[in-house]
Amino acid sequence: MTKNISAILIFITFSMFSQENFGKNEEYKKNIYNEVKREMNICKMNEYHLIYEFDEQNEIWEECFITYENEKPYGIIYKFESLKLPIFYQEIYYTENKKLIFAQETELYISKNLKDTIQWNCKYFFENEKLVDLISLGHGKTEEDNWNPDLILEKFRKRLSEFNTD
To answer: What pLDDT score was predicted for residue 6?
Structure first.
């Protein structure tokens, strides 16, 4: 009986502190991520790939329209990159039918001697405008006690607002 209780407590503790514990299976996450990577590669060669440079903010904004046979945009990938030494930042948002499906934040610390780099990234997965899973790698925000993964939705809405006003 005590072995069962110990096993349950270990499982609960692991589940509470896991950075990949919302319940979506690996195949679901792998399929979405592979689709995003595939579409991003297509976007680089696509006439619908737009790049905006904002020098005063040292940011590069990219927008890529995903179309299929009917030529109507099905989805959009937004990518925002900036360098605020010593950290390179990247945000990627993937939408289908104007709904957020996937987001990724990356922070890459680059040391002065360029020998040491530390990367943190978090991949977010959504269904019906709700965060359903995430995967975080490296040391960064996800280790902070006050980190709230749902804030990525606010960040996305803010980015869309900025994007649409410029």
So the answer is: 37
